[in-house]
Amino acid sequence: EANTTCLICLEPVGDKKSYGTMVCPACRHAWFHRGCIQGQALRDGIACFRCPLCRDRDAFPSEMLTMGIRIPFRLPSRDSRAEEALLAWHSRCDASGCLCPGGRQQADEEG
Description:
By secondary structure, the protein is mainly α. It has one domain: Herpes Virus-1 (2-Layer Sandwich). It has 3 helices and 2 strands. It has helices at residues 34-48, 59-66, 80-87, and strands spanning 21-23, 31-33. Strands 1-2 form a two-stranded antiparallel ribbon. β1 and β2 form a beta hairpin. The chain is elongated. The termini are far apart. Residues 6-55 form the RING-type domain. It holds the Pfam family zf-RING_2. Keywords: Ligase, Metal-binding, Zinc, Zinc-finger. One of its GO terms (molecular function) is ligase activity.
C-alpha cells in the first residue's frame, strides 16, 4: 500500500518488497527496513526476536534467517538507564483520579 511505514523507525518504506524492505511472513502487515529489523535482531537475540506487530516467534525468525538477517544466539541486550527507569517505584499516586482508600499521600513499602 502507499504510505506504508517501517514499524521500527516509522520512516516510509517502498510500496513493494525489495532487498531493502521486508514484510512479516506470518501477518503480512508488518513492513520494515532491512537495517531496522537487523538492529532489532541484534538487540533481541534469538530468545526474544519476533515480529514487531504480530509477535510471531515461529515463522518470523526462520524467515528472517533465510532472508539474511543475522540473529545472535544470546540473551537480549538492553539500555541499562532505560531499564532502571522502568524498574523505579513511584513514591506517590499520579493518576488523575486516585482510587486508593488511603489517598495520594499513602505510600506502600513496595512502591
